[in-house]
UniProtKB/TrEMBL annotation:
Homodimer. The lineage of its organism: Bacteria, Pseudomonadati, Bacteroidota, Flavobacteriia, Flavobacteriales. Pathway: Cofactor biosynthesis; biotin biosynthesis; 7,8-diaminononanoate from 8-amino-7-oxononanoate (SAM route): step 1/1. This is Adenosylmethionine-8-amino-7-oxononanoate aminotransferase. It comes from Croceitalea dokdonensis DOKDO 023. GO terms for cellular component: cytoplasm. Catalyzes the transfer of the alpha-amino group from S-adenosyl-L-methionine (SAM) to 7-keto-8-aminopelargonic acid (KAPA) to form 7,8-diaminopelargonic acid (DAPA). It is the only aminotransferase known to utilize SAM as an amino donor.
Length: 431
């Protein structure tokens, strides 16, 4: 870094940050100063003191093709010079059209329409509003959601309502939509969960069943079976409840298939995508739905249309990033790399699962999670110590409670992956 850069943004960035900035998920009274990051490339980012870190969770599961991927930045630059932005109401553009066509080729084949939003929460918000209005338009009163315990769907009110993690929702619980909550299905509880669902569906006021398919991310990378989820979806479909799959975390190859729903026999009516959609380059999201959902909004009455918009909906630069991301998702090189990471994760799980400090170790696709046999509250002190342990070793992981998880960019090298595994093994010895 040049002296000039040092002068302007130099070593006191964290100090300047404290003056005017308010960070997400942060208790500023007690939190440590944030780390100033100045550069990122591939699976690495670098702080203002020149130290590099492996981005072990791809910056919240977004930068799956690596930071600063030249194929994506080139596509965005080209798009920027051609058409920067135009509103998406009354106008359309090639990047959005091409993206809809390309996504339709890989989404479950019951999906027919794509609605654009600008972040994950608003993709879920739109999905919930679609479901509520779907019934409203037909003159039916359906005002309740069904959702899993410990789910996470975002921080706007509808999305928060579907979420079941009280650490996020506490102060707002009195203001949320009506929700019936069911446990995620496991091998041992499926019968009970199904029975509970049947009771909920008996006097049916439910518009939608909103779920994270196969992996509940914020809950601590908890997995549930495709078979169990299929059974729940089947019951909901029989009762005409729209099924909404939140693939914001799981989408774009992380579970080993393009989408977690690809493991299911019964497909959701609505799917939410964001995060890796634009490879960490641009905030954009989509809510896709079936022709049947779309058709419920067609009418001579204007008010039966879906009156929901965000100014930056379908931003051309975001669409260009997403299109370039799809090239990479489907490239032979990264397909092979994903299989390779999956194989190494499995070997590591076999290696550590019998360790006395490991309560559970699991992997699916490039997602690896290890629950430690240590007691801690979700954002308690132990979690901070785990976080610091990895950061000292140049690895960015964000443990959730006693769960350590790794969700690396597909471009991570074997050496970088090994460094993460060794740090986890070291941790198992010293903690
Ligand atoms: C991150 C996430 C969201 C929220 O997305 P934002 O872009 O942060 O609003 C919703 N659902 C799931 C499963 C997520 O992982």
């Amino acid at each position: 870094m040049s002296d000039f850069n040092d002068l302007i943004q130099g070593p006191n960035l964290a100090q300047r940050d404290g003056k005017h900035l308010w960070h997400p998920l942060t208790q500023h009274h007690t939190a440590a100063k944030p780390l100033a990051i100045v550069k990122a490339k591939g699976a690495l980012f670098q702080d203002d003191m020149g130290k590099t870190y492996i981005d072990g969770i791809a910056s919240w599961y977004t930068a799956m093709y690596g930071h600063g991927n030249p194929h994506i930045t080139a596509a965005m630059t080209k798009q920027m010079q051609e058409l920067d932005f135009v509103m998406f109401s009354g106008f359309t553009h090639r990047p959005a059209i091409e993206l809809s066509e390309r996504l339709m080729q890989i989404l479950p084949n019951n999906q027919a329409k794509i609605f654009f939003n600008d972040n994950g929460s608003t993709a879920v918000e739109a999905a919930i509003k679609m479901a509520l209005q779907y019934y409203h338009n037909q003159g039916k009163k359906r005002d309740t959601l069904i959702a899993f315990e410990d789910g996470f769907h975002g921080d706007t009110f509808g999305a928060m309502s579907a979420s079941g993690l009280s650490s996020y929702n506490g102060p707002f619980e009195d203001f949320l939509l009506k929700v019936e909550r069911i446990p995620a299905p496991t091998d041992t509880n499926l019968e009970q969960v199904l029975a509970r669902l049947e009771t909920i569906l008996e006097n049916n006021h439910c518009a939608a069943f909103v779920f994270e398919p196969l992996v509940q991310g914020a809950a601590g990378m908890k997995f549930h079976s495709a078979k169990g989820l299929d059974a729940l979806i089947t019951s909901c479909k029989k009762a005409n409840v729209l099924c909404v799959a939140d693939e914001i975390m799981t989408g774009f190859g992380k579970t080993g298939k393009n989408f977690a729903c690809d493991y299911l026999d019964h497909q959701p009516d609505i799917i939410c995508l964001s995060k890796a959609l634009t490879a960490g380059m641009f905030p954009l999201s989509i809510t896709s739905c079936t022709q049947n959902v779309f058709d419920a909004f067609l009418s001579d009455e204007v008010a039966k249309g879906f009156f929901h918009a965000h100014t930056y909906s379908a931003h051309p630069i975001g669409c260009a990033a997403a299109l370039a991301g799809l090239d990479l998702l489907q490239s032979a090189q990264l397909l092979e790399r994903r299989v390779d990471i999956q194989r190494q994760h499995r070997a590591f799980v076999r290696n550590v699962h019998v360790h006395p400090k490991v309560q559970n170790a699991r992997s699916l696709g490039v997602i690896l999670a290890i629950d430690l046999k240590l007691n801690t509250d979700r954002y308690g002190k132990l979690r901070d110590r785990l976080y610091a342990f990895f950061m000292q070793r140049g690895i960015n992981l964000r443990p959730l409670g006693n769960t350590i998880y790794v969700l690396p960019p597909y471009v991570i090298t074997d050496a970088q992956l090994k460094k993460i595994y060794s740090a986890i093994k070291e941790l198992l010895e010293v903690f």
